[in-house]
TrEMBL record:
The record marks 163 as: Transition state stabilizer. This is Methylthioribose-1-phosphate isomerase. One of its GO terms (molecular function) is S-methyl-5-thioribose-1-phosphate isomerase activity. The lineage of its organism: Bacteria, Pseudomonadati, Pseudomonadota, Alphaproteobacteria, Hyphomicrobiales. It comes from the Bacteria. Belongs to the EIF-2B alpha/beta/delta subunits family. MtnA subfamily.
């Protein structure tokens, strides 16, 4: 993707071929700052503090985190320690576990002196694969947007999205945004309703920022507006991402996604989930009962950060002193509410059979 005319991915290797660089997503949309990560503790902190976020990017960052640890000390003990530190950062996005386990499998049989270079190559391969998966999702999702445009006789297609399942959540393209970028590039008239996504406002701060960078027409709405827009025919399709989709097609995604799916069902609006295979957890079945839901700090609800008129970044309190706040960061949308999963292998039903048919290689194997 291009930021102010310059091509960027969201994570890249430093000139020393050891440290990695990422965009600090806690500073957007106000400041575009690049952070250097030089060791596994810094990688873990960047994930936990959400300087990097979004399921696919969390996975890639963790893979590089293991590589940084192996460069410092390639012993078995340090491999275990690095994997444990990274795995403890965020519980919900399965890409984290997937990337750590994939890296551990790749390294465990190797002599320690080979582990550093192999770990870097493996992290780079995971990053490259993420770009390819997102691009394939883009092509399959493009067909859905083109079909909607054809149904509307060429009138603009209104797409609603939640949180940031965009370029910033991945290495490139995004998951939910890949079809949008592909359609926009192809000249399909479209407009995106961007849910602000309280409490951290990934929609208003991140999705809006990247759509702006790419000239995609969009409008930010409060999280509660989606049902109203759907009732009035203002949403043609919903496309969201996923942090963990189970073998039966239940979709865990940013808190508030479930309510959008209910409103979409009630209004006959197609509800699609862009789901690259590393976000599918074939070891899990019942998403509501089994998905570990991250609870984040109440301060994300009670306080808000923004840019003051004089340009200073300020954090202010929104609530009465003494009120409690509870901050579950994800919810689960049952498969019955999902029109389809846009995977790298095509658009499929959110069902056990369809997932097993599309991914026979993954469905049979332990994660
Ligand atoms: C493609 S990333 C996964 C989701 O689609 C995204 O919306 C999301 O929930 C990210 O959560 P975050 O808590 O910002 O890491």
């Amino acid at each position: 993707m291009r930021i102010e005319g310059k091509a960027f991915t969201t994570i890249w290797l430093g000139d020393d071929a050891a440290s990695i660089h990422v965009i600090d997503q806690t500073r957007l949309p106000h400041k575009f700052e690049i952070v250097t990560i030089s060791n596994v503790a810094e990688a873990a902190r960047a994930i936990a503090d959400m300087q990097v976020r979004g399921a696919p990017l969390i996975g890639v960052t963790a893979a590089y985190g293991v590589a940084l640890a192996m460069r410092a000390d390639p012993s078995d003990g340090n491999l275990d320690k690095a994997c444990a530190i990274l795995a403890a950062t965020r519980p919900t996005a399965v890409n984290l576990k997937w990337a750590i386990e994939s890296t551990r499998r790749r390294l465990s049989g190797l002599p320690p002196n080979e582990r550093g270079p192999v770990a870097y190559a493996h992290a780079a391969a995971i990053a490259d694969e993420d770009v390819a998966l997102c691009e394939a999702i883009g092509e399959h999702g493009l067909a859905l947007i083109e079909a909607a445009a054809a149904r509307k006789g060429g009138e603009r297609v209104n797409i609603l999205t939640h949180c940031n399942a965009g370029w910033l959540a991945t290495v490139d393209w995004g998951t939910a945004t890949a079809p949008i970028y592909k359609a926009h590039e192809k000249g399909v008239p479209l407009h995106v309703w961007v849910d602000e996504t309280r409490p951290r406002n990934q929609g208003a701060s991140l999705t809006a920022w990247e759509l702006n960078q790419h000239g995609v027409p969009h409008t930010i709405v409060i999280d509660n507006a989606g049902g109203h827009l759907m009732q009035h025919g203002d949403v043609d399709l919903v496309i969201v991402g996923t942090d963990r989709t189970t073998a039966s097609g239940d979709v865990c995604n940013k808190i508030g996604t479930y309510l959008k799916a209910l409103a979409a069902k009630d209004n006959g609006v197609p509800f699609y989930v862009a789901a690259p295979s590393p976000s599918i957890d074939f070891t899990m079945d019942d998403g509501v009962a089994e998905t570990p839901i991250e609870t984040r700090s109440p301060q994300e609800i009670t306080h808000i950060t923004g840019r003051a008129a004089d340009g200073r970044i300020e954090t202010v309190c929104l609530v009465p002193l003494g009120s409690a706040a509870h901050n579950p960061a994800f919810d689960v949308t049952p498969a019955r509410l999902v029109t389809g999963l846009i995977t790298e292998r095509g658009v499929i039903a959110a069902s056990r059979d369809a997932l097993a048919r599309a991914f026979p290689d993954r469905a049979a194997k332990p994660q």
